[in-house]
Amino acid sequence: MAKIPNEQLIKAIADKFDTSVTVIGEPYELLTVETGRETIIDLLSFLKTDPELKFTFLTDITGIHYPEQEKPIGIIYHLHSLTTNTRIRIKVFLEGTDVHIPTATVLWDGANWMERETYDFFGVIFDGHPDLRRILNVDDMTAFPMRKEFPLEDPNRVDKKDFYFGR
Amino acid sequence: MQNHPVYTDNDPQSELSTLNLGPTHPATHGVFQNVLQLDGERIVSGVSTIGYIHRAFEKIAEHRPFYQITPLTDRLNYCSSPINNMGWHMTVEKLLNIQTPKRVDYLRVIVMELARIADHIICNGVLGVDTGAFTGFLYMMEHREAIYEIYEEVCGSRLTTNIGRIGGFERNFNSRAFDKLRAFLKNFPKTLKEFESLFNRNRIFVDRTRDVAAVSAETALSYSWTGPLLRAAGVDYDVRAMNPYSSYEDFDFEVPVGDNGDVYSRFLVRNEEMWQSLRIIEQALAKLDKEPSDIFHADVPEFYLPPKEEVYNNMEALIYHFKIVMGEIPTPTTEVYHSVEGANGELGFYLVNDGGRSPYRLHFRRPSFINYQMYAPMSRGMLLSDAIINMSSLNVIAGELDA
C-alpha cells in the first residue's frame, strides 16, 4: 500500500481527538503532532489499532530538554506503519516539576528499555512502567545528564582549567 | 537510590543457583552482565545489566560540529562503522537538502555493503565457534581482512573508519581499492559457499540451533526488532527496500526472510544477505563505469571541507574552510529523522537542529539496544548453552548497545 497522505492522517486524528492533538509541522514530510499526557496513550493506541492507519511499529521513544520553555521536558515518539510505510512523530511536553507520563509498555513490549533510557537521561517518570530503573548510567547517580543544565565535563576537574590553555 | 532487583535467592530450601554471566566473559563477546537464576542447567529468570561502556555520545554530540560527530558514530557498531558514518552523513545531507551525485551514492553503497558483509562474517563465524566449529570462523576472517584492506585504501583506517564527509568522500577511490574489491568479489563467494556447506546441513549445528530461541513475528514486532532478527521471524522489513536511500532503488536485490525466527533462521538470513550484498556490489561496480570517474563529492563548498592544498593556495577554499570550522554557516532550524539499514537493523538518527553549528539534540536509534531487551525474557526456560548461542545470534555489539 502507498504512503498515507499527511492530510488524510491529520483528518483521521482530528475526527477522533478534536483539539486535544495539534499538528506542529511536517518537517521533511514527517507529520509531527503534539498532545498532552492525558491523551497520549489513547492516541498511541488509536494509531496502533486503527484498521486503516496501522502504526503497529514503535520505532523509538526519546526525550528532549528546552530549559527556556514553560514546559521544558519533551518526550518524542516515532511510530511506523509497516503496511503503508508511513511514519509519524508525536511529542508530549511536561512541566519541569511534574514529569509524569503514562507508560507505553501497555502497547509495546519494546517501549520498556526506551522508556528506561528516557528516564535515565531526562528524569521522566513513566507511570505504570514495570521496571523503571536507570539503564546506562550508574544506579546511584542523582542527576539526569541529558538535561541542558548538566555540564559536558565534570566541573570539579582541576586538570582542564582554561588558564592552562591560555584561554 | 533505585530498587535493585533481587539477585540472590534467600530461601534456604531453594535449590536454585545464581550465576553471574559477565560483565566480561569469553562467551558474551562484549561487556554485558546477566544475572541468571538456574535450576540445574535451565534458566528460571534473568536480569540484564548494560551500560558498562556508555560513553555519552548523545551529550558529546551536542557540543561538536556536524563533521566531528562522524568519529562518534564509528564507535556505535564498530563491526560495521561505515554504515554508521554514511547514515550520519545522509542525515545531515537530508537536513541541509544536499543532493549527492549518483557516483557518490554508488560508492557509498559499495562501502556499506562491504561493511554489512564484514559484520555478518563476524556474527555467523562466531555462531559457529560457539557451537563448537572453529574452522568456518577462521576461513571467513580472512575475507574480513580483505574488506578492511579495502577500507584502508579508501580512507586510511580499518576498524573505526570515519569514511566519507558530508557531501561525499574525502578523496576519490584509487585503483588499488578497485583492484582489491574485484579480488574480494572473486575470492569471497567460494569461501562463503564452503562456509554454507560446512554448516547448513551439519547435523550437530542444526540440532544446536533449530527451534532454539524461536520468536514469532508478533513478538518480534512488539519488541521493535529490526534487521536480520525481524526478517528471520518472517517480516520482510528492510529499510533499503522500503525507504531507499543512497540510490538503493537502482539496485536489484532480494530481502531474505526466515520462517520461525530461531537461531538457525537468523543464520540462514545473514548468509543470504551476504550473497545479496555481493550482488549489489557487482551491480554498483557496473554502474560506476557509466559515471564520470572524477566525481567523489557533491558540489557544496559551504559544508564540504576543502582539501588542504586548496586551503593554502586558493582564497575561496580558505574562506569556506574558515567558515565551516568556525561554524558561521547558517543551518535550518528544524528536525529530521533518517534511518539506514545497519547490519543489525534500523539505525536511526533523530537530529533536532537550532540553526547552530552542532545539534541541539541528537538521538541514535540503536538496533542492538532495542533488540537486546528481549534477551532476558526470552531466556526463561532455556538451557544455559542455548542462551549463549542465542546471544551470539542476536549479534549485540556492546558499542551500539551502550552508545
Automatic annotation (TrEMBL), chain B:
This is NADH-quinone oxidoreductase subunit D. Belongs to the complex I 49 kDa subunit family. It comes from Mucilaginibacter angelicae. NDH-1 shuttles electrons from NADH, via FMN and iron-sulfur (Fe-S) centers, to quinones in the respiratory chain. The immediate electron acceptor for the enzyme in this species is believed to be ubiquinone. Couples the redox reaction to proton translocation (for every two electrons transferred, four hydrogen ions are translocated across the cytoplasmic membrane), and thus conserves the redox energy in a proton gradient. Residues 130-402 form the NADH-quinone oxidoreductase subunit D domain. Keywords: Cell membrane, Membrane, NAD, Quinone, Translocase, Transport. Residues 1-20 are annotated as: Disordered. The lineage of its organism: Bacteria, Pseudomonadati, Bacteroidota, Sphingobacteriia, Sphingobacteriales. It comes from the Bacteria. The keyword Membrane applies. The keyword Thylakoid does not apply. PANTHER family: NADH DEHYDROGENASE [UBIQUINONE] IRON-SULFUR PROTEIN 2, MITOCHONDRIAL, NADH-UBIQUINONE OXIDOREDUCTASE 49 KDA SUBUNIT. Pfam families: Complex1_49kDa. NDH-1 is composed of 14 different subunits. Subunits NuoB, C, D, E, F, and G constitute the peripheral sector of the complex. It catalyses: a quinone + NADH + 5 H(+)(in) = a quinol + NAD(+) + 4 H(+)(out). Its EC number is 7.1.1.-. It is found in: Cell membrane. InterPro entries: NADH_Q_OxRdtase_suD, NADH_UbQ_OxRdtase_49kDa_CS, NDH1_su_D/H, NiFe-Hase_large. It is an enzyme of class 7 (translocase). It is a peripheral membrane protein. Its main location: membrane.
